[in-house]
Amino acid sequence: MIIGLTGGIASGKSTVSRHFESLGVTVIDADRIARKVVEPGQPALEDIVETFGPDILNEDGTLNRTALGARVFQDPDLRARLGAITHPRIAQEMARQSAAAFERGEPWVIYDAALIVENGLFKAFDSLIVVACSPETQLQRLMARDGLSVDDARARIDSQMPLGEKLKVADFVIDNDQSLDHTRRQVDELFNSIDARIRQTGSARPTDD
């Protein structure tokens, strides 16, 4: 069973993901995989250099993610070209990691990714968890985390799908607008609920009863 985990930028998705891991859930992190597939020597990096030019590399031959991000951030066509290079390889590694977890006897895993709703991938999963916070909290966290100005932080947030659209398709919502302990308690409760439901019914998806 694969359960999706997503949220808006700086909404606290990584905090929730780490707590699920501490509870023993295998978390397949799309960001980690994305970094792995573009390491030196990987075919994806060769394709990226061929598409975007060698100036997106650091001196040591690694990918300069900042330079590449600046290139594609406000250009949907370039983002699509980058996605065509990386997304199939990310999906392949996700499938490999989830298969390995199931072979170990784990009944469910979490796939943690920012674009699960945007790319429609959530439809292939048993259920979807969305991590949410208020727009004000999201803005302040992003500014503090990345050292951005108000305008730059708002531009980053506005470039993504509105959180409200993700909440419309959520099966579970984690409110990350309060204390860390409050968030962790919600994750603990959700873990117990999902684990029990999967073991009893074979599905994490809530019922209407």
TrEMBL record:
<dbReference type="InterPro" id="IPR027417">
    <property type="entry name" value="P-loop_NTPase"/>
</dbReference>
<protein>
    <recommendedName>
        <fullName>Dephospho-CoA kinase</fullName>
        <ecNumber>2.7.1.24</ecNumber>
    </recommendedName>
</protein>
<comment type="pathway">
    <text>Cofactor biosynthesis; coenzyme A biosynthesis; CoA from (R)-pantothenate: step 5/5.</text>
</comment>
<keyword id="KW-0173">Coenzyme A biosynthesis</keyword>
<feature type="binding site">
    <location>
        <begin position="10"/>
        <end position="15"/>
    </location>
    <ligand>
        <name>ATP</name>
    </ligand>
</feature>
<keyword id="KW-0963">Cytoplasm</keyword>
<keyword id="KW-0547">Nucleotide-binding</keyword>
<comment type="similarity">
    <text>Belongs to the CoaE family.</text>
</comment>
<dbReference type="InterPro" id="IPR001977">
    <property type="entry name" value="Depp_CoAkinase"/>
</dbReference>
<dbReference type="GO" id="GO:0005737">
    <property type="term" value="C:cytoplasm"/>
</dbReference>
<keyword id="KW-0067">ATP-binding</keyword>
<dbReference type="Pfam" id="PF01121">
    <property type="entry name" value="CoaE"/>
</dbReference>
<dbReference type="GO" id="GO:0015937">
    <property type="term" value="P:coenzyme A biosynthetic process"/>
</dbReference>
<keyword id="KW-0808">Transferase</keyword>
<dbReference type="GO" id="GO:0004140">
    <property type="term" value="F:dephospho-CoA kinase activity"/>
</dbReference>
<comment type="function">
    <text>Catalyzes the phosphorylation of the 3'-hydroxyl group of dephosphocoenzyme A to form coenzyme A.</text>
</comment>
<keyword id="KW-0418">Kinase</keyword>
<dbReference type="GO" id="GO:0005524">
    <property type="term" value="F:ATP binding"/>
</dbReference>
